[in-house]
Amino acid sequence: MKESDLMTEPRQTSAEDQKVPLLYYCVAGGKAVFVLAVFRVLAGPFTEDIFGEELLPMPTWEWVVFSVTPLIILWLARRPVDWEALSGERMFFKIALTFYLLYALTFSLFQGEWILWVGVAAGLSGLSGIYYLNHRESSDAD
Q: Which among 53, 58, 30, 28 is positioned nearest to 43, based on CA atoms?
């Protein structure tokens, strides 16, 4: 079995005996990472408000990990069948990638966090990938 077949290979769910593609587990993981990223951004100011000092500094290297996760999911879903299956999740990926891009760009420019330029590149690559896959899908439909 090829690695690319693993994304569309169904997995049995125990409750309803319905088959769910592995791609949906990846999307759920991407959503969980996005929630953690938002929490991580808000944790620094929150601890400063509550405890009077910032216990967690603003994210740096972990933000790169956050911003790369949608890019990995997009790379795994690059086949037309998988990309079509993600039709309902595309807006989520655009929002997440834009959020990652804006955070990384802001803090790399104004605070000199050079590691965040990798996050900027990942955000731009992901948004470009979404544009490319959407364009490829629309040209295939013609």
A: 58
Q: Are 61 and 95 in contact (CB under 8 A)?
A: no
Instruction: List CB contacts of 108: < 8 A, sequence separation 6 or more.
Output: 114, 116, 117, 119, 120
Q: Report whether 127 contacts 114 (CB < 8 A).
A: no
Which of 74, 81, 78 shows the shortest CA–CA distance to 100?
74
User: Do 130 and 90 meet the contact criterion of CB atoms below 8 Å apart?
Assistant: yes
pLDDT digits (tens, 9 = 90+) for 106-140: 999 988 888 999 999 999 999 999 999 888 877 76
The model's pTM is: 0.76
